[in-house]
Amino acid sequence: MPTVRGSGECAALAVALVSATFWPTHAPAQTPAPARPEVRVFDIPAQPMAAALNAWAVQANTQVFVDPGPVAHLMAPAVKGALTPRQALRALLAGSALQVTQGTDGVFVIKPRPAAARIAPPPPEPPQAVAVPAPAPPAPGTVRARLGAWRVGLGGAYAQDAGTASDGAMAWVAGEYFLTDGLAAALAASTPRTHSFDVPGAAARARASARVQSTALTLKFYFAPQGRVDPYVGAGLALTSLYDAQGVTSVQHRSSAATVTGGLDVRLSPQWTLNTGISWTQVRPDANGAPVRLDPVQFSLGFLYRFGASGDILHRR
Question: Which residue in 61, 49, 165 sits closest to 112, CA to CA?
Answer without folding.
Answer: 49
